[in-house]
UniProtKB/TrEMBL annotation:
Transmembrane segments: 32-51, 57-76, 88-107, 149-168, 180-202, 208-228, 260-280, 328-346
GO BP annotation list: phosphate ion transmembrane transport
Keywords: Cell membrane, Membrane, Phosphate transport, Transmembrane, Transmembrane helix, Transport
MF terms (GO), sorted A to Z: phosphate transmembrane transporter activity
Taxon lineage: Bacteria, Bacillati, Actinomycetota, Actinomycetes, Kitasatosporales
Keyword Ubl conjugation: no
Organism the protein comes from: Streptomyces bathyalis
Keyword match Transmembrane helix: yes
Name of this chain's protein: Phosphate transport system permease protein PstA
Membrane-protein topology: Multi-pass membrane protein
Source organism superkingdom: Bacteria
Role this protein plays: Part of the binding-protein-dependent transport system for phosphate; probably responsible for the translocation of the substrate across the membrane.
Residues covered by the ABC transmembrane type-1 domain: 142-346
Length: 360
């Protein structure tokens, strides 16, 4: 056997490179500085041009922010980094443009509605009061909203849940495609169309008068597709291995759905239902057609006209006097607080039912 001599590899130095070890970088505070300069230039250009709207100032400042960011980054760094910073700047500008109207709406509603929103306002109705008189409350509208939304949920949630179960677990063929198509159509249906449908069928066709239940049926039509879509997506997230393991043990399919699939996705389903409730709470058109409004407390949603929070805000604001406008802003703040509470409850349910990390 011949002996081979292993030569030790020679370590050579890497070839010299002309590229610098470190590139020039803008400081971290540069976006803030560019934003301040852009805001100052936007205000200056707006004043010179004679624009009184602050929205125009803001749009000019946003445009200048993107342009200055690109120019400064190109001079200091390079064009590749400039394009990256421009993309980031556009995202920030779009975020600010989306947040500013929301903050302005919340601030205006809170500042104008908080001065009248108190215990008396929440616990009294408008019974026995004139439109020009100060005082009165929103209790009858709040009670009507709770009853109408509650009845709509009792109608729409079971139907939407069972429809989603059918589409995910059983649906095949033309019937499933037809149901999916009509759910998609109902998702974008205008609220006034739902109100007109119930008006033609329930009130004009069957001869029933205005009531909270009629409004609830219209709200249920608007709520069903949201429940179906959200529940369907949650059921699809359940791993098929869980279904197969249950079926392999001889458990019937209906019991597998009841004991395995639904408990696994109950958090997302509950969140979708709560968001659907928040979506229909502010609907006004069906209530105007079917509920009519009432200044007195009507605890019976199946007989007689009722009030609701959106209708209360509309009726008070259209009167035009100072007292009614203050009540409208207070009612709007009550409605926003109610919807926000529903969203917080939905997030709490989602966090509570979410899978625990690390098996805890």
């Amino acid at each position: 056997m011949s002996n081979t001599i292993l030569e030790k590899p020679q370590i050579t130095d890497p070839p010299p490179s002309s590229a610098p070890l470190a590139r020039r970088r803008l400081p971290r505070w540069s976006p803030v500085a560019v934003a301040l300069v852009s805001a100052g230039l936007g205000i200056g250009i707006g004043n010179v041009a004679g624009w009184e709207s602050r929205v125009q100032w803001g749009l000019i400042a946003a445009l200048l922010f993107v342009v200055i960011t690109y120019a400064v980054t190109t001079l200091v760094e390079d064009r590749r980094q400039a394009r990256d910073r421009v993309a980031t700047s556009v995202i920030w500008v779009c975020f600010v443009l989306a947040v500013v109207p929301l903050v302005s709406l919340a601030w205006t509603t809170t500042s104008r509605g908080a001065k009248l929103l108190d215990g008396y306002f929440l616990s009294h109705s408008m019974g026995g009061m004139t439109n020009l008189e100060e005082g009165g409350g929103v209790y009858h509208a709040l009670l009507g909203t709770l009853e109408q939304v509650g009845l709509a949920t009792l109608i729409a949630a079971p139907v939407g849940l069972l429809t989603a179960i059918y589409l995910v677990e059983y649906g095949r063929g033309r019937l499933a495609r037809a149901v999916t198509f009509f759910v998609d159509v109902m998702t974008g249906i205008p609220s006034i169309v739902a109100g007109l449908f119930v008006l033609a069928f329930w009130n004009l066709g069957l001869g029933f008068g205005p009531s909270g239940f009629a409004g609830s049926m219209a709200l249920a039509i608007l709520m069903m597709p949201v429940v179906v879509r959200s529940t369907e997506e949650m059921l699809k997230l359940v791993p098929n291995e869980l279904r197969e393991a249950s079926l392999a043990l001889g458990v019937p399919k209906w019991r597998t759905i009841l004991k395995v699939v639904l408990p696994t996705s109950i958090g997302g389903i509950a969140t979708g239902v709560m968001l659907a409730i928040a979506r229909i709470t502010g609907e006004t058109a069906p209530v105007m057609l079917l509920v009519f409004g009432n200044t007195l407390i009507n605890p019976n949603p199946f007989s007689g006209a009722q009030e609701s929070l959106p209708l209360y805000v509309w009726n008070q604001y259209k009167l035009g006097n100072a007292a009614s406008i203050d009540r409208a802003w207070a009612g709007a703040l009550t409605l926003i607080a109610f919807v926000m509470l529903l969203n917080l409850v939905a997030r709490g349910i989602a966090r509570w039912k979410a899978p625990k990390a690390g098996g805890r």
